[in-house]
Fold this protein.
Amino acid sequence: MPQNTPSLRLNIWHELRDYLMITLGLTIYAIALTCFMLPHEITTGGMAGVSSLIYFVTGFEVQYTYLIINVVFLIAAIIELGWKFCIKTIYAVLMLTFILWAMQRLIEMQPGVDPGHLPAVMPDRFMSCVIGGLLEGFALAICFLNNGSTGGTDIIAAIVNKYKNLSLGNVILICDILIISSSYFVWMDDPQRWERVLCGWVTLAISSVTLDYVMNRRRQSVQFMIFSRNYSKIADAINRTGRGVTVLDGTGWYTKTERKVIVCLAKKTESLNIFRMIKSIDPYCFVSMGQVHGVFGEGFDKIKAKATSNKRTLVFATNNPHKLEEVRTILGDHFEVRSLEDVGCRTEIPETGATFRDNALQKAQFVKKFYGFDCFADDSGLEVEALSGAPGVRSARYASETGHDSEANMDKLLTELDGVENRRADFRTVIAFVTDDSVHYFEGKIDGKILAERRGEGGFGYDPLFLPDGYDKTFAEMSAEEKNSISHRGQAVEKLAAFLKK
Ligand code: ITT
């Protein structure tokens, strides 16, 4: 049975790290704004730019306008996408509002500073726009790399992207150019109005280049070719770091002797560590390191080019790798089944329905609406007769609200059934399949009973406790094929497949 607790802990750590890094990015963003842009009345892009324009005209502090505009956008986004989708954006908006407020109060506390007038850190406007742009780009990269967003134009971009075939990046760029250009009208009577607009564009250009540079740097990869008599030790050492290596056969042409060549693709950030390892094993070896423009495959980027295939592409709206594997096996080669991760959906899609059918529909419609693919989603669960159908739709979150702790769920189930004679139960799946103009449902159910203790290592969820009727093996003791051939999900997916093939 897979252990969920360590991966839960890892998830919590990843989330925590995201929030810490987003806070760092927002702090740098606030420094760029309050120390470099606002004092020189340089308009930046995004909602911070709109807020700056209002500040230049009315003196109304940026953080308040920024908060008000974003609250409006966020309410719309929460209604459309659900609050879980927006949680990091809500955090970023509130945090940036607070940091901007605190930073201005801090600056005002300095001797000789007029309240309401931010002093320039650099007297030169052009230098300020260069440094401000650099800091802004760096700050946004930190936020994006840690799954954050600063709201505002990101939300507009998501909405426009839904209706028009424009990439998010292009929409954000168009919004930013419009916002910065509109500063011309704010400074209508100022002879330097063009200079101000140009400074805004320069800031935008610098921040965009910095943003791309920082984001791409993290992705840069290198290729090592290592020629050493101690190749096996070096290959093992690199392998232990989690990187793969390939050892090729070669011939040293001068001596006409056999040589082994190690080829290793790694992230640039890992190269120092690899050099250290190589040097400690064979200081006299021969090494070349070259930059590669792209590395695709496990541990690196995904190939984005579309393979030419006439398979129908469907999204299976799940975050559960076991379910994905089961469904891919059942649907076979006829369809290209993409996961939520494959289509870039990292959102926890809300499952707030009272029935399997409601939840399945909610998930499939979410993907259809925001990603455009025909999509199917299932909601499955265990229904125990003696517990009046519980855990049912709450199967994943039976033991705790955070959910997906299979061990804890099974422990709770066994405690609830302690001393209970009636162990009858069933697994049920409802699949909702959503296309442009239709919704179809497919159901599967398997009866069985709940054992008094776990049996088997395979499967997931409650599998080790579920003995299907007519079998002497639990789901966790069956091979994937055996389980798929009788399981609730197997039945529902077979019905979906038959429907699709028609
Ligand atoms: P997604 O919502 O991301 O698809 P999930 O794991 O939450 O993944 P469900 O809501 O459909 O999937 O299922 C709820 C829980 O029911 C699931 O986490 C398991 O604990 C249990 N469950 C569902 N199908 C199961 C199966 O085939 N074997 C064992 N347990 C299963």
Notes: The mean pLDDT is 86. The longest helix spans residues 5-37. Residues 185 and 193 are 8 Å apart (CA to CA). The chain has 16 helices and ten strands.
